[in-house]
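@channel sequence for tomorrow's demo:
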Amino acid sequence: MVRRPPRSVQCRPPGSAVWLAQLEGPLNEEAAVRLKLVQAPPLQSPLLSFSGNVTSQCGEDGIIHRLVQLMQPQAQYCVEFGAWDGVKFSNCFHLLTRQGWRGLMIEANPDKYAELVATYRAVPSVVTANRFVSFEGRDSLDGILTEVGAPATFGVLSIDIDGNDFYVWESLVQYRPEIVVIEFNPSIPNDVEFVQTRSFDVNQGCSLRALIGLGTAKGYELAVCTDWNAIFVTKEKFGLVGVQDNAIDRLYTPVQNGRIFQGYDGSIHVVGMDRLLWRNMSVSSANFQVLPPALQVFDDAQRHD
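structure tokens (generated this afternoon):
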């Protein structure tokens, strides 16, 4: 069994890229291991300066408003799921209630759907649906949009279902939103392509890099990222939004930019990942040790007599 470190890991304060982690081990008894995460270059999307919230969580309302000004979508129609109560963290509420847009709000939870209906009861331009969006068939996004008579090309699609976001966007083939707001897992480094198992029994999400690949295949370009939402625009209108360089590292730095590596002695070191984001639990290198301290020895090492 791996012993706990003699003191807890010092969590990274905001804006800091360096902190120390104390580990027990045969080669690490006198000094702390120094772990340094080099700061990423500043983000470059000019759209971030338009960030602002009416009901959105991380500035999406203001960015969407600016994109609409620049792109002039063919149809002022938006679709959002899971829409929750239609207000909390909604990326479409502002468009539907203050900008005169039409739209479809989808929520699977029956209790929250009742609140969603109440939110838009006095807004006849909004259709609500108590549906669980699937990958195919009647409950696919294509199927639901066909059922409600949505325009083939429309302004904004907002996807936030905490897991299968990638697969639902992938399954959309008959309709073409001009702006896509989609959630990704903000703990995955930019150089990792990850997509969870295609199952509604799993809630792991996908990486931003995986979404960029999907977007490219579907004819979209990444325009801007908030803390955990990627905002894509159609390739044909990308030139209108003022983004000169949309390389992933120019547009996003993960909320947790974790790295894990091993020492010659078999010790495991973790940097850039100091807590479980959705459990609010501290994480340290000690949690990742495969070998007990007594076996963390490099056989070919030169040692003092």
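heads up for whoever presents: The mean pLDDT is 87.
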